[in-house]
Amino acid sequence: MNKLLGILIFFISTGVFAQLTAASYKVKNLDANTKYGDFSTTFYGKDKIVFSSSRSGAGGNKWDGNDQSYLDLYIGDVNEKGEISKVKPFSKSVNSKYHDAMVTFSPDLKDVYFTSNNYMDGELKSGNLKIFKATIGDNGHWTDMVTLPFNSDDYDTAHPFLSTDGSKLYFSSNMPGGYGDADLYVVAVNEGHYGAPKNLGPTINSKYKEYTPYVDGDIIYFSSTRPKGRGGFDIYMSKLDGSIPLPINLGKPMNSRGDDISFIIDNEKQKGYFSSNRGGGKGDDDIYSFVQQTVNPICDQTIKGLITDKITGLPLSNAFVTLSDKDGNKIRRIETLADGAFYFALKCGESYNLLGDKNGYFANESTLDVNNSNGYENKITIALDEKEIIEVNGVEMLNMETIEFELNESALLDRSKESLVKVVRLMEKFPTMTIEFGAHTDARGGDGYNMHLSRSRASVTVNYLISIGADPKRIVGKGYGETKLVNHCSNNVNCTEIEHRQNRRTEFVIIKK
Asked: What is the 3-state secondary structure (H, E, C) of 143-161?
């Protein structure tokens, strides 16, 4: 049995998911690249890019690792073709005489996290990389620079990426307790306070190096030196929840025989950037732009919808929503609760049909074409037009909820008074229509008492309708007591409360159209 289970797990983890292939991409080397190292882009607002570069050239201090200048941060404008222009140093207040690279910004662009050597107060404290945070002032200067609490002189922390809402910081580190040489971690961020770093687990990390995380919805992109890649570092993607046992290699042309890192994407435009030292480039590392041309195989979205009454705009409970594919094949059908809301998971790049329906309402259909933006929440409202007249057991009547009264009394509840406004509206819409209001009880209680109670309720209801504008010549009231039960729940028969409620009803029967 254990051997069989192992075989099944093997096929599930290697057979099914191995069939997933990445989207197709078109890549381009940027004109802004130099003969030096240019890499590690990050979005700065909607139309600017910040990146790392050693382009200061022969001037300044040099790093023994490649005899180039230490890395500084630069910023440039992005045009429609993805090119980066008007490049300039990002901030003199942070560009130190040692490495400064790999930045990420808070949603309001007021805080920045960046990777640097353990450098504070103008001195190099150690050779370890650390993540720092700074505040960006109105003049663009970085102030209040602090080292993060999970940094250490004993290991590296680097490559920060802040989630879209600013609540989570992802990073790479070779801290003790990981799965390999360098693992990816996440830490909670709460107004300057940080939780304990959490390893992203063995379905994302390996015994090799994992660098440069980028999170798009529930998908994480990262670079790794794990085997079976095309070169040194390859770019992979996976689900944050670990639901994909094997990360998906993005393949050619995103990956090469060189090191391919620092993937970022604007999922609305399906465009982004990555960095590579592949052959044929302009410098040590170059920045490449890309366009995603097909659907990401693990891209998904959600739809959060609402079923409402077309006239009142109020949400409808106990309505049904059916989700079907473009060919009409039903995927799922759910019932709404009191808030009228519904929720479905969707696949990117697909077309869907949504059908809303409810007893007493005309059905309404809507179509939805899902884009390729991972994690996007589609919002939709389906308004249903209520049927004014329905037929029950061959009898035409107004489509009305049961009118409710105080327990064992004939006094109308306030919510029923609001419903009766609809009766007056329909009588005005159909000026020759005559109706009978019938009040019914269940079989519990004496026959005479039930008849008296129903007649009293009929009288109170008709009088109230007249008081709010109903024509008294066109409406009558009648109490039936328990003489017209709709099920078997007569005297001395044990029934459920739901069955008794079916008999305890009110009806607006159309006598004349």
From this structure: EEEEECCCCECCECEEEEE
In this structure, the answer to whether residues 148 and 243 fall within a common structural domain is yes
Residues 99, 178, single domain; the answer is: yes
DSSP H or E stretch at residue 228 = none
Predicted TM-score of the model (pTM): 0.72
The share of the chain scoring above pLDDT 70, in percent, equals 89
Last residue of a domain, one of 384, 400, 422: 384
118 and 225 both lie in a single domain: yes
Q: Which of 384, 408, 439 is the C-terminal boundary of a domain? A: 384
- Kindly state the tokens that stand for 119: 């450098």
Give dist(CA 300, CA 183) in Å, integer: 26
Burial (0-12, 13-18, 19+ Cβ within 10 Å), 214: buried
Query: Cis (ω within 30 of 0) for the bond into 253?
Result: yes
**Closest to 153 measured CA to CA, from 180, 184, 196, 119:** 119
Q: Are residues 259 and 225 in the same domain?
A: yes
Contact between residue 53 and residue 88 where contact means Cβ atoms under 8 Å apart: no
Contact 68, 35 (CB under 8 A): no
Query: φ, ψ for residue 319 (rounded to 5)?
Result: -95, 160
User: Distance (Å, rounded) from C-alpha 275 to C-alpha 37?
Assistant: 10
Give residue 249's domain range: 2-292
Instruction: Please check whether residues 424 and 475 belong to one and the same domain.
Output: yes
CA distance 449 to 241: 63
Domain shared by 173 and 62, yes or no: yes
Tens-digit pLDDT profile for residues 309-350:
998 899 999 999 999 999 999 999 999 999 999 999 999 999
Contacts of 108 (CB under 8 A, 6+ apart): none
**Left (φ > 0), alpha (ψ -120 to 50) or beta: where does 179 sit?**
alpha
